[in-house]
Amino acid sequence: MEKIQCPKCRNRAIKNGFQSGKQRYKCTSCNKKFHLKYTYKAYNEHTNSFITSLLKEGCGTRSISRVLRISKKTVLSRMLKIAKEIKIPYVNRLGCKFEVDEMWTFIKRKENFTWITYAIER
Q1: Helix extents (H) in 4-117
Q2: Domain-located, residue 20
Q3: φ and ψ at 9, to 5 degrees?
Q4: 20 to 30 A from 5, CA-CA: which of 74, 93, 107, 113?
């Protein structure tokens, strides 16, 4: 018999009924309930990294949901979750203070836009 591990705490899990015809499991220590294989793409462990890379490429929420085949509301909630995990960079150079700003411009056509970021010491 194959031993099933909890994805959260890696302890032993036991069978805990069915949901939509698929076996559910329950962790014996943290009581988390889970499936071994999810059919909805948002439960994939790489979804957040895909959303981040598509946002860096300039894709909108609708295009991300279309490419990844997940809901627009799921994309928005994941974007908020990812944004909360971003830490503000701390730059301290002997008490100096910096002002950071950014702007974008385009050359010839609006499709060829470029970001310019600069930091000025106060």
Answers
A1: 47-56, 61-68, 72-85
A2: yes
A3: -115, 0
A4: 74
